[in-house]
Design goal:
Blueprint: E1 10-11, E2 18-19, H1 21-28, H2 34-53, H3 76-88, H4 93-105, E3 114-117, E4 120-124, E5 139-143, E6 151-153, E7 165-167, E8 185-189, E9 196-197, E10 199-205, E11 208-213, H5 214-223, E12 237-239, H6 241-245, E13 250-252, E14 258-261, H7 267-276, E15 282-285, E16 288-291
Parallel strand pairs: 6-9, 7-13, 12-14
Antiparallel strand pairs: 1-2, 3-4, 3-6, 4-5, 8-10, 10-11, 14-16, 15-16
Length: about 300
Amino acid sequence: MPLPAGPLVVRSHCYGHLLTPAAADLLLRHRGGPVTMQLYNEWLHQMVLLRDALLPFTNWQDVPVLIGPTGLRHTEDGRDAFLTELLVRQIRHSGIVAHARRTLTGTAGPAGYGFDHDGGTVLPAVLDTPPATAPRYLLTWRPDPAVRHTATYLPDPADYDAAPRTPLDQLPPHTPATAPRTLTGRVTAGPVHDGVRTARIAVTHDGTTAHADLGQALRGHRFAHRRTPGPTGTAPRPVAAWDLLRAPQLVQAGDTGGTVDTTGLDGLTVLALLGRSYPRAVVLRPDGLTLGATGRSR
């Protein structure tokens, strides 16, 4: 006889997942029992852990998740910290990296912006995506058979607020006729010391190489605004990309601000420009950067 309200739905006692009538018959009647129910609940819990473990990654289907003696339960503490920060505050990039590291290695490490692990590297997705459209926080797993050990990537300097700054007004006047029209960057990683390392973006022109710390560049990408800058009262000062890259310190805009034309530059060079700019009131556009005089860093 059919039930007045339709098929009866029973909730799992552990995690609140709906049980279909067929699942309820297998788990709760003569063919099931407490052991079967616990196995089913554990399977559901492992699927939830897997889902949350892969949240930081763009290419989640390719990530070599560590499976321990208890499945993915080694990720539980890191998952709780990750979800708590995600739900109650603006999550830090280092928190996302820490959660991803536990997923792949099962261990914690220094607070960094990425890490190497046996067989590959985990770094922000912007390294493979145009900076103006790349996600700010998501990571990408990149296989690399040459990677044999686990090492954390740390920014240099760790505290950009304490780093010396060069006023934008001290850079030479922009001369479009002599400025290079194309610049190409490449990432070079430093040696591993005590489980940590740094990396830089190198941009070369006419036999001269300019460098930007990769951690600072990624920090600049996360902090950059993606909107049309408001009026500043006076026209922003045009700045050549190569001059900004060669500045001895982080470049900070003055009262009038400045603009950098990035037409023809590859994504890594744009990142290097963000790494050489003090990350306050920087606007990232598809065709350039605007270094404003107001705003706040994050």
